[in-house]
Amino acid sequence: MNNKKAGELMVPISEYPHIGENAAIKDAFSILRKNFEEGRGYRSVLVLNEKEQLKGVIGLSDLIRAVEPGFLKIKSDTYQGFSPEYPALTVIWQEIFSEKCREEAGKQVKEVMTPVHATVTLEDSIAKVAYLLVMTKSRILPVLDKEKVIGVVRLVDVFNEIADVVLLNNQ
Asked: What are the two backbone dihedrals, phi and then psi, of residue 121, each rounded to the nearest 5 degrees?
């Protein structure tokens, strides 16, 4: 692991799900569902502009939050607990929930994507990648060559590299 670089662990962009920023949220659902059905465990989709420049990422939670009807959304960014009437109200909302989800799925991905807080290059060390993943609380880090995304380093792959080192030293 000492000399490994991000490029050695990355999943090439040709294999990682990505979508245009103007695509519908429904398309992102479709991409991730297809990946799950094919046995790949990708939990997010990179969002690119028409020049293939990284604009953001959209994950499972982002997608669920995106189609959640507006009347169910919590207005505060700070969690303060749910109102006791929320569970009871969901019974009433259930009747229109599916319809509202389908309506919301027409929104563009760029409206709900999460900005990327860090990126790496092919030559960045695994130590730097691990540091950035932990500090940004990310599960993936896009790998860039200039401004173009060429791949993704995943938290699980960095974990496996570190596990190999830790477990080798313990044997």
From this structure: -110, 170
pTM: 0.80
Radius of gyration of the CA atoms of the chain, in A: 19
Q: Which of 69, 75, 72 is nearest to 86 (CA)?
A: 72
Q: Under a CB-based contact definition with an 8 Å cutoff, are residues 35 and 17 in contact?
A: yes
Q: SS in 3 state form for the chain?
A: CCCCEHHHHCEECCCCCEEECCCEHHHHHHHHHHHHHCCCCCCEEEEECCCCEEEEEEEHHHHHHHHCCHHHCCCCCCCCCCCCCHHHHHHHHHHHHHHHHHHHCCCEHHHCCECCCCCECCCCEHHHHHHHHHHHCCCEEEEEECCEEEEEEEHHHHHHHHHHHHHHHCC
- For residue range 66-76, list pLDDT tens digits in order: 887 665 555 55
